[in-house]
Write a structure and sequence with these properties.
This protein is of the alpha/beta class. It is 41% helix and 14% strand. It has nine helices and seven strands. The strands form three sheets. A three-stranded parallel sheet has the order 1-2-3. Strand 6 and strand 7 form a beta hairpin. Helix 8 packs across helix 9. The protein starts with 5 loop residues before the first strand and ends in a 16-residue tail after the last helix. 35% of the residues are buried.
Length: 269
């Protein structure tokens, strides 16, 4: 039911964990559980401060009118960089073996997510509960792919990417997403795009965002940016809206303009 919301967002950079892992076992048995425990504790303390010292609920009409309740709030356990983590820990160099392609990489990624989910669900915060959130990343990230996505430039064929992505999104009740630019001619056959979306959801995908490759407006994930505004900003011209500033960093760090463009069959006249 309702009555709550997202109270806080922690953020675990999986790439940094992978960088210091000495082995697969060291990562699974030591680094991962320690990092998850630390982030749960940090989120728990932050939530407690917001509700007790910050008196968040006492200062909103939503509470006084009985619309929200402190036991209904969710702490969002965010994570980024699973792809880099898997590739680094397993030392995967060949394109066919890397995250989003190879069987070993897929099994390891799903094992990591299962372990994380089990530990997060077992943690009992003072208020509400914790759920996993696939975080998109921030402008200062370099070489870190958002949430469980396959890195830009390494995307497999669309059907393979959708099947893999659906598997990795299972545990993310607090939100996760992937974005797909479609070639301009897809507008002539919208039913084909709808079939792709239906198929993805049928396989368990939670969130599917798409846009035209020729569109000026591009979704980063949590916000939209205009390609033309970013070009002006990068050229030193004045722009309105802080999303342009954020998007400029995302265009470099997250390569949002370099995503693989997809095609769909054209309807016969």
């Amino acid at each position: 039911g309702g009555g709550g919301g997202g109270l806080t967002l922690g953020r675990l950079n999986m790439k940094k964990l992978g960088d210091v892992a000495e082995s697969r076992e060291h990562f699974l048995d030591h680094l991962l559980p320690a990092a998850v425990a630390a982030q749960c504790e940090q989120m728990d303390k932050r939530d407690t401060y917001i509700l007790e010292q910050g008196r968040f609920l006492e200062n909103t009409f939503l509470c006084s009118e009985g619309l929200i309740h402190r036991d209904k709030f969710v702490g969002m356990f965010g994570m980024v960089g699973l792809a880099e983590c898997v590739n680094t820990v397993l030392k995967l160099e060949k394109p066919e073996e890397r995250y989003g392609h190879g069987r070993e990489a897929q099994e390891f990624a799903l094992l990591i997510l299962d372990r994380m989910h089990e530990q997060i669900k077992a943690y009992k915060p003072k208020y509400g509960r914790f759920e996993m959130h696939g975080q998109v990343g921030i402008a200062t990230d370099t070489g870190v792919t958002p949430n469980t996505r396959i890195p830009v430039g390494e995307e497999p064929p669309l059907h393979d990417q959708l099947l893999f992505t659906a598997l990795t999104q299972k545990h993310f009740a607090a939100g996760i997403g992937e974005l797909f630019p479609f070639e301009e001619t897809a507008k002539k056959n919208p039913m084909a795009v709808l079939d792709i979306i239906k198929g993805a959801f049928g396989e368990g995908m939670r969130y599917f965002s798409f846009y035209s490759s020729s569109s000026d407006v591009v979704r980063v994930t949590g916000y939209l940016v205009k390609r033309s505004d970013i070009e002006r900003f990068d050229a030193g011209e004045a722009c309105l809206g802080n999303s342009t500033v954020l998007g400029s960093g995302a265009s470099r760090g997250l390569h949002i303009f370099e995503r693989s463009v997809r095609q769909v069959p054209q309807e016969k006249d």
